[in-house]
């Protein structure tokens, strides 16, 4: 019997559907296979090629020097796709690893230091890199530094090179430390905003910009003392590295107008005459010089060289054996969980706890670079370190650029505290801010009313004037937390609360000044902290394990692709989606963008403190950063 038209139609549809499904699976399988091939090539693609003799390490430092990269690989990739600000960061640990490994590598005979794209780094972290450059030179290998110009951060590293060159149109710009701050009292008064400040500490000046039109005498005194100490240390370091007479840097700055006139405005020649550089050369002239000194590359157009990223990829840390665990505490301290490159009370405590519970980790180093933040989160972290010591594992604190206020709080539960001479620390003090805008709503004709069951009902409403009784409660709480702060510090430093109070009061100190006042045990480097932790745990041959947040599967895949590969993928995606890459702009105020953004950041912080969590949270923050 012949099939009906409907049977033919149904059979045709079934055949078509099977063909479509088979095609779909085939395409998806091919795409999946392609991804596997790309990953296999990225992971097993022949490995690193062997280095030839007389290879030069090109240390092109791009980005901001930090203790730990922020965020994760997925965030970095999405920022690249969206065109968001994704400033490159350079981890201190990577720079030190590359320089120390290259110093022992027989095929590496010299290094070229390029600093044009290095856009920041605190004084303590720069000193760590400078010391690594000195170790490289001590192995008998020269370092040649070149820059189109140098700012004072870049120059601190360049000064430690065997030879320093600058472009004939460049210069070395040494400005000194200290900057003007904005003060908003009059502006807030005009807006009708009242900032109620509760604090303990004569020198606790964090919130002064919101309650005054200039610094208090105490704040001005403390800032001058700190900056002068840092600047004296900086100039001494440069003069020692460049073999200049004591006071030569300040003399050049003071005589600069006359020196510029003598050289008819040629700033490069002024720099050369001041012996801050060894010569004026273009980049191609430096390249030609390195070709003559070393070996030509395969193409015969440059010198045999290897870049920072490529050399870093050759370094493979030990994966087994006894270890010193390192927990990096970088950034502001907040409650709860924070991503890598920032500090969360819960997340950082979790890393410390993981180190304590890992049997292969015999000691812990807490590397601190933080101006502070939440007092509660700081105590949560300090307690976790206290438990680690109680469990029999030594704890050594290594202070980096800043370890002040809450950053000092988390440093108090340690067997030993080691600071750099240029660390900014101390700022033992507490404050709380309660902004109110009752005058603003009066101007707008807005009124607020209600019948809470107690006077505490809605006491934190920013549209009502601050009830003096509530202010008294908060001030009492701040006083108690300050007493707790200095009490814990006194116990940690084996002294009395009265002696700690005498050097506390919210005042900040350099590492050198803090050592003189008994707030730290000794001065030293990050490497000294690792050695101290290993010694306390009686370790001789040990590895270093960095405690990091758990990595998601997506981040692992992005990580396997490698940073440069991921960036290339991101840029390709962005171009295909028509994403425009654009710079941020300032507020629409008529002010320069940098000034407007600074004001927005200050006032934004005030608004954020009011809106997020509790507006009466006790804050241990120093409003300080390494210059």
TrEMBL record:
Q: Does the keyword Magnesium apply?
A: no
The UniProt transmembrane annotation reads 27-48
Entry keywords, A to Z? Hydrolase, Membrane, Protease, Serine protease, Transmembrane, Transmembrane helix
Location relative to the cell: Membrane
The UniProt record lists the Peptidase S49 domain at 136-291, 389-539
Major location (coarse): membrane
Q: Which Pfam families match?
A: Peptidase_S49 (PF01343)
* Family per similarity comment: Belongs to the peptidase S49 family.
**What's the protein called, per UniProt?**
Signal peptide peptidase SppA
The species this protein belongs to is: Duganella qianjiadongensis
| Higher taxonomy | Bacteria, Pseudomonadati, Pseudomonadota, Betaproteobacteria, Burkholderiales
């Amino acid at each position: 019997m012949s099939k009906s038209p409907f049977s033919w139609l149904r059979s045709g549809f079934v055949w078509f559907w099977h063909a479509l499904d088979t095609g779909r699976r085939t395409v998806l399988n091919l795409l999946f296979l392609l991804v596997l091939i790309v990953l296999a090539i990225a992971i097993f693609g022949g490995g690193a090629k062997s280095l030839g003799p007389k290879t030069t390490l090109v240390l092109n430092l791009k980005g901001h020097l930090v203790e730990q990269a922020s965020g994760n690989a997925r965030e970095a990739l999405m920022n690249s796709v969206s065109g968001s600000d994704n400033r490159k960061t350079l981890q201190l640990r990577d720079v030190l690893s590359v320089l120390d490994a290259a110093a022992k590598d027989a095929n590496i005979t010299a290094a070229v230091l390029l600093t044009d794209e290095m856009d920041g780094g605190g004084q303590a972290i720069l000193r760590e890199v400078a010391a690594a450059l000195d170790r490289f030179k001590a192995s008998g290998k020269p370092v040649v530094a070149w820059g189109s110009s140098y700012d004072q951060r870049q120059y601190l590293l360049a000064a430690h090179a065997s030879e320093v060159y600058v472009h004939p149109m460049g210069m070395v710009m040494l400005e000194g430390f200290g900057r003007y701050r904005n003060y908003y009292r009059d502006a807030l008064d005009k807006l009708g905003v009242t900032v109620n400040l509760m604090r303990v500490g004569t020198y606790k000046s964090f919130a002064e910009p919101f309650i005054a039109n200039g610094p208090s005498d105490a704040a001005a005194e403390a800032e001058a003392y700190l900056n002068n100490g840092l600047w004296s240390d900086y100039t001494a370091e440069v003069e020692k590295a460049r073999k200049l007479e004591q006071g030569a840097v300040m003399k050049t700055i003071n005589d600069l107008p006359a020196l510029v006139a003598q050289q008819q405005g040629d700033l490069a020649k002024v720099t050369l005459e001041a012996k801050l550089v060894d010569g004026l050369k273009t980049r191609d002239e430096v390249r030609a010089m390195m070709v003559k000194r070393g070996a030509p590359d395969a193409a015969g157009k440059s010198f045999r060289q290897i870049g920072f990223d490529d050399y870093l990829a050759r370094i493979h840390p030990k994966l087994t054996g006894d270890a010193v665990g390192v927990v990096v505490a970088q950034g502001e301290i907040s409650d709860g969980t924070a991503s890598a490159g920032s500090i969360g009370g819960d997340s950082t405590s979790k890393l410390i706890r993981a180190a304590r519970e890992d049997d292969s980790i015999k000691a812990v180093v807490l590397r601190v670079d933080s101006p502070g933040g939440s007092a509660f989160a700081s105590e949560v972290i300090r307690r976790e370190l206290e438990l680690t010591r109680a469990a029999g594992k030594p704890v050594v604190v290594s202070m980096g650029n800043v370890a002040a206020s809450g950053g000092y709080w988390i440093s108090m539960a340690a067997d030993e505290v080691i600071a750099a001479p240029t660390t900014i620390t101390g700022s033992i003090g507490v404050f709380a801010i309660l902004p109110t805008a009752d005058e603003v709503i009066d101007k707008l004709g807005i009124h607020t009313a209600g019948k809470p069951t107690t006077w505490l009902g809605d006491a934190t409403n920013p549209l009502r004037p601050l009830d003096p009784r509530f202010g008294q409660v908060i001030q009492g709480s701040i006083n108690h937390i300050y007493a707790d702060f200095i009490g814990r510090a006194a116990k940690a430093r084996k002294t009395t609360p009265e002696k700690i109070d005498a050097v506390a009061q919210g005042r900040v100190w350099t590492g050198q000044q803090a050592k003189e006042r008994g707030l730290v045990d000794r001065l030293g480097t990050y490497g000294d902290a690792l050695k101290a932790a290993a010694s306390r745990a009686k370790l001789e041959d040990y590895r270093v394990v960095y405690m990091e947040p758990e990595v998601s599967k997506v981040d692992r895949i992005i990580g396997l692709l490698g940073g440069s590969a991921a960036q290339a993928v991101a840029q390709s995606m962005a171009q295909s989606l028509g994403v425009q890459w654009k710079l941020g702009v300032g507020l629409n105020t008529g002010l320069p963008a940098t000034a407007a953004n600074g004001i927005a950041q200050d006032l934004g912080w005030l608004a954020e403190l009011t809106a997020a969590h509790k507006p009466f949270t006790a804050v241990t923050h120093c409003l300080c950063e390494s210059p």
